UniProtKB/TrEMBL annotation:
It comes from Solea senegalensis (Senegalese sole). It comes from the Eukaryota. One of its GO terms (cellular component) is cytoplasm. This is Eukaryotic translation elongation factor 1 epsilon-1. GO terms for biological process: positive regulation of DNA damage response, signal transduction by p53 class mediator. One of its GO terms (molecular function) is translation elongation factor activity. Keywords: Elongation factor, Protein biosynthesis. CDD domains: GST_C_AIMP3.
Length: 160
């Protein structure tokens, strides 16, 4: 999957000359390093953050992606979704107000988890669902992944 993600990232970045890269097994050890390299090659450094603080936040989420999402057990999915839902409570993107590489790679990593959620589970993680739907509709991001239907309006109010 990492190679498909990197290929999609290359297309999003509109890199003309395809790069030759490989990741180390299922651990995807090189995913973050290669993705950062591709961003720099494309001269899109804003995707790595515009300030020292945002660059640190982007790196934190890239590390989270590799250490928590890659190969997570089913038992960890609820915890991951709960953490993300809380974090995304009052922000649009993982680095705050700016779309970054963290959003792209987290979207690729969380896609298989969101696909398996029921409508009720998506409603329980409304902030993650909102963020996910926003990123999947970001131009050029969803390359190799199928779209995920997201319910836009609640069927019932909290009073019922």
């Amino acid at each position: 999957m990492a190679l498909r993600e990197l290929s999609s990232l290359e297309k999003y970045l509109e890199l003309k000359k395809p790069n030759k890269y490989s990741t180390q097994g299922d651990k995807k050890v090189g995913l973050v390093t290669i993705a950062c390299y591709l961003v720099k090659e494309a001269k899109r450094s804003e995707l790595l953050g515009n300030s020292a603080e945002s660059r640190a936040v982007v790196q934190q989420w890239l590390e989270y992606r590799v250490t928590r999402l890659n190969g997570c057990a089913k038992d960890d999915v609820k915890t991951i979704l709960k953490e993300l839902n809380l974090y995304l409570q009052d922000i649009t993107y993982l680095a705050g107000k700016q779309f970054t590489l963290a959003d792209i790679l987290m979207y690729y990593g969380i896609h298989p988890l969101i696909v398996d959620l029921t409508v009720l589970e998506k409603e329980q993680h409304v902030n993650v669902t909102r963020w996910f739907d926003h990123i999947q509709h970001y131009p050029g991001i969803r390359r190799h992944l199928p779209p995920v239907a997201v319910l836009r309006n609640r069927i019932y109010t909290s009073g019922h």
